[in-house]
Design a protein that fits this description.
- The protein is an alpha/beta fold.
- It has a domain at 65-203: Rossmann fold (3-Layer(aba) Sandwich), CATH 3.40.50.
- The protein is 26% helix and 27% strand.
- The protein has 6 helices and 9 strands.
- The strands form 2 sheets. It has a 7-stranded mixed β-sheet.
- Strand 8 and strand 9 form a beta hairpin.
- Helix 1 packs antiparallel against helix 2 (24-32).
- It is globular, with a radius of gyration of 16 Å.
- Bound molecules: S-adenosyl-L-homocysteine.
């Protein structure tokens, strides 16, 4: 897209490579999706810095490194169905749409869901469904998923999310307290309902609310 921001996107790609992102499809998606359209106009000049930014309704668009890392951890090949919990700005949703076959993204704040939908419609990304509701229980109607990304801090691993993964499916979720979490990779075992758990990075996300999230704050 020749929109005057290509140079900034390339610099962001270089920053992410330096920080250890190697998946070429993920880097291509970052080089393509216009992140400045997903942040408030007054913050556009910061859109390609590797930082989280406020997006209204007390929420944030996550740091590009963490978003790229989460996408990379799903090991997508272009053929998967992916569930994202916490659409927020819709930027990560847009990245995912370039990496898999279809993305279902759940957001509990209706204004954010509408805003994300609007930008995604403008960009004509065809394989995205934005859903309004509580994603702490996953989204059963469209399950199972090959991959799930939770973009909000969870007090524990919500069991329904594991149940909504295909055998061998991968789930990336920040688990911990409201203040600090560990980005965690859950891989469902090929048989039965067991799973393996790997700690990835220390992170700080806004809280997951809803039935299996943190209480209150509504
Ligand atoms: N990936 C987003 C990050 C948004 S921050 C981006 O790139 O912009 C996390 C989002 O999770 C917030 O928008 C918040 O409203 C949403 N959220 C919190 N709890 C939720 C729940 N139970 N179900 C769905 N969305 C939730």
């Amino acid at each position: 897209m020749s929109d005057g921001f290509q140079g900034y996107r390339s610099q962001l790609v270089e920053t992410l490579q330096r920080k250890g992102i190697h998946d070429m499809a993920v880097l291509r998606a970052v080089a393509t999706i216009p992140r400045h359209l997903f942040v408030p106009e007054s913050l556009r000049h910061q859109a390609y810095q590797d930082v989280a930014l406020p997006i209204g309704s007390g929420q944030t668009i996550s740091q590009p490194y963490v978003q790229a890392r989460s996408c990379e951890l799903l090991r997508l090949t272009g053929r998967e169905r992916v569930l994202e919990i916490g659409t927020g700005s819709g930027y990560q949703t847009a990245l995912l749409s370039m990496l898999c076959e279809s993305v279902f993204s759940v957001e509990r704040v209706v204004e954010l869901a509408k805003g994300a939908h609007e930008v995604i419609r403008t960009l004509q990304l065809p394989n995205i469904t934005i859903l309004h509701g509580d994603g702490s229980l996953g989204w059963r109607p469209n399950a199972p998923y090959d991959g799930i990304i939770v973009a909000a801090a969870s007090p524990a691993l919500p069991r329904p999310l594991v149940e909504q993964l295909v055998a061998g499916g991968r789930l990336v979720i920040p688990i911990g307290s409201r203040e600090a979490q560990c980005l965690t990779l859950i891989t469902r075992q090929p048989e039965g309902d067991g799973y393996d758990e790997t700690s990835i990075d220390d992170v700080r996300f806004v809280p997951l609310l809803g039935e299996l999230g943190f209480a209150g704050a509504d």
